[in-house]
């Protein structure tokens, strides 16, 4: 099996692009559905991947496998960014609501009560990490050392904990302002 020097050029030059795309589309659609990417975002990710393939023209044995592997990677990147956005929008909203000059004491007490109830519903591992980091004021590195995590892994646990906390708070009627 010879490596194609310019697979995109050969596909386009042979007027096989439409056939190539039609043969790739069901597998790409299945991959996007497996990752549960919303419709418009799925279309954007697929188009970006195809555009990347056409502009870079990487030397590959099988262009469809390259496109599918790149599409899979981009789906993972999509959800990582989605979680980061949730974390960035939720964390400041909760912390600002707890700040002294911003929230009246009654509102702050109600929010603290809701936060404590939501924390109780989280798995022990995530609850301990969130309490150590946010309530005790430890840095991620200190939290990792204290609880026996690798420093590189503590961010994933924090993100998952904040996402779980956001879901719990959402069920209690708290809406984080996205900023």
Briefly characterize the structure.
This protein is an all-alpha fold.
Structural class: mainly alpha
β-strand number: 0
Low-pLDDT residue spans? 1-7
Which range does the strand content fall in? under 5%
Helix content: over 70%
- What is the distance, rounded to the nearest whole angstrom, between the alpha carbons of the first and last residues? 52 Å
Rough shape? Answer: elongated
> Treating each run of at least 4 consecutive H or I residues as one helix, how many helices?
8
Mean pLDDT: 78
Order of helices and strands: HHHHHHHH
Largest sheet at a glance?
none
The whole-angstrom Rg is: 23 Å
Number of domains: 2
Task: Present the secondary structure layout.
Layout: H1 7-13, H2 17-34, H3 39-56, H4 63-98, H5 105-120, H6 124-135, H7 140-147, H8 151-171
Can you walk through the features of this model?
The protein has helices spanning 7-13, 17-34, 39-56, 63-98, 105-120, 124-135, 140-147, 151-171. It has 179 residues and is mostly helical. It contains 8 helices and no strands. 76% of the residues lie in helices and 0% in strands. It is elongated and about 65 Å long.
């Amino acid at each position: 099996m010879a490596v194609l020097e310019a697979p995109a050029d050969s596909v386009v030059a042979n007027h096989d692009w439409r056939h190539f795309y039609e043969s790739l589309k069901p597998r790409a659609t299945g991959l996007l559905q497996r990752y549960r990417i919303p419709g418009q975002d799925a279309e954007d990710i697929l188009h970006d991947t195809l555009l990347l393939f056409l502009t870079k023209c990487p030397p590959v044995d099988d262009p469809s496998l390259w496109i599918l592997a790149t599409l899979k990677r981009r789906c993972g990147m999509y959800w990582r960014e989605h979680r980061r956005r949730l974390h960035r929008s939720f964390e400041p909203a909760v912390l600002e609501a707890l700040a002294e000059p911003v929230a009246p004491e009654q509102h702050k007490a109600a929010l603290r009560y809701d936060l404590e109830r939501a924390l109780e519903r989280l798995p022990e591992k995530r609850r301990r990490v969130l309490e150590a980091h946010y309530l005790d004021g430890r840095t991620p590195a200190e939290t990792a050392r204290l609880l026996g995590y690798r420093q590189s892994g503590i961010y994933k646990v924090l993100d998952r904990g904040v996402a779980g906390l956001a879901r719990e708070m959402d069920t209690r009627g708290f809406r984080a302002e996205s900023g």
